[in-house]
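Fold it.
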Amino acid sequence: MSNRLKDEKSPYLLQHGDNPVDWYPWGNEAFQKAIREDKPVFLSIGYSTCHWCHVMAHESFEDGEVAGLLNENYVCIKVDREERPDIDAVYMSVCQMMTGGGGWPLTILMTPAQKPFFAGTYFPKRSHYGHPGLLDILKGISGLWKNNREALINAGEEITAALRQEGSPKEQEPDRSILNHAYALFQKAFDRRWGGFGAAPKFPVPHNLLFLMRYAALEEAKASEALQMVEKTLDAMAKGGIHDHIGGGFSRYSTDERWLVPHFEKMLYDNALLILAYTEAYQITGQKQYAEIARRTADYILRELTDETGGFYCGQDADSDGVEGKYYVFTPEEIALVLGNSEGKIFCVRYGITEKGNFEGKSIPNLIGESSMQRYEADEQKLYQYRLGRTELHKDDKILLSWNAWTMLALVKAGRILKEEKYLKAAAKAENFIRENMTDAQNRLYLRFRKGEAANPGQLEDYAVYALALLELYQTDFQIKYLEEALFRAEQMLTYFEDAKKSGFYKAASDAETLIARPKETDDGAVPSGNSVAAMVLHRLAMLTGARRWQEASDRQMRYLAGELRNYPAGHGFALLAMADTLDSHKELICAARDGVPEELKDYLKDRPAYGLNVLVKTEENAERLAKCAPFTEEYPLPEQGAFYYLCENGTCRVPVTDLCRIF
């Protein structure tokens, strides 16, 4: 039996295409049916690599009894949260408002007018130990819809009204006290034994680590402790089972405080952001193990999550053959089979592979308790090849623009700092893929690409993260096309997403599909919010171009974010990064070189953190185009040979020099 999801492109929707549930994709057809048949709507939101989504699917959506009840009394809609983050954001807010929590699978019951009256996450088929079962919920709501519908409709109206309420703007001037408050909160939550912040489950949240490194540079008196928190966390994650010691890359989060037992799904965005964190830690500390972890993670992405056309896939599942973690765990007998008895015993001792096991009778390879990060690389490679043939992982092979942009950004930084040309080439290829495949006839961005089809209008994070990645590409090879494109996408961001009345940026564009609410997201969860990234983009453009309109836009956004994050700034790690940039001293370096980018400039940028430094390169070839991006550069003369370097700091410019070493 198949349903209407069989013709979709989303891997998550396709996973449910053979369910006995009569699923509809989100769209007018489903809501018109609900109106016509006078039925409430059952909305289920998830994603293809979500373990508990699989559990609920197997228990309920593949079950004839549940399907019969759903089909008879509801119109059922499936949404891939990764393809429609706007829908997910609206109804996740509802769930958090009604229950105090959220997550996936997200379960919503609502009127045909899309107004929700019930929300939750995973439900077992039957009630169990006080946890309500889906069958009982569906029967209860169906009875209310027939006998006391007014109560449900009124609840939907009240919830929708509360969702739409926007308070008056809370803008304030950004200042260092906000950063200091955030730092104090991180100190308080820091796990001094195992690293990370708070109790289990523990999430990597790399942007918090990036902020602490930035804070260390800004507040030298507190640098030592800030960096200690970062290094302790990076070391613990790298040794734990959350890090795939056989194939590279990191899982979604750790279920325990030691980072040993992960939730095994691997997501593109986590790994991209972790590349940024480990690369920056290497640049700051010089510790080679951080460079190695960054390389292993980048190589994992290039090997397992990269499409031949240049895009990057979303991630890999936690389950194999319906069993969570099966792909990743080993027994001592398997190790001996692959490596031989003698070598196998040595490997098992080093990587914690025991007869008892550390996860459901088998072992997750780890280096917890080991004094070093020394690896048995030849053995790891043999086990990796064995693992590939032992069982398979489902791969979500759709290409999401914002996640690809994070990966571009990470690969550019890693390529520049680690001097790995293949990463730079992969980032440039991905940028070319986006330009050729994920823009429409009006040169607007699409959100998703899969199997030859681009779909769904780009949202705030698509424009913001793409612009930031383009700026990073420009700061690496100084091709003017990247700066031009970044300016163009930032212009679209202002035009279609900014709230001109109350500041900040909406998640969906002004001409996007109308939902029951138009959210603005500022919290930096697993992925930084579009508002946080927009702040960083606007500030960098203001510094690079010297244009008043970009400075004014940057000021508006920073005042908006300062007001939003003042109560709990530790929940806004990437916004804190942007704020640190705006509060720190800033330098603009203009290199005028007739014959191209000087190698000494490229080498300089590879070897030191470029906090607060924005670089423009003017050549004979790009002078006219650069002047359109940054009009003030028109006045800078090109030398007959060599290069002139002009450094301006906090609005004061120095005498030009020909030797870069004399500037810093």
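The longest helix spans residues 268-285.
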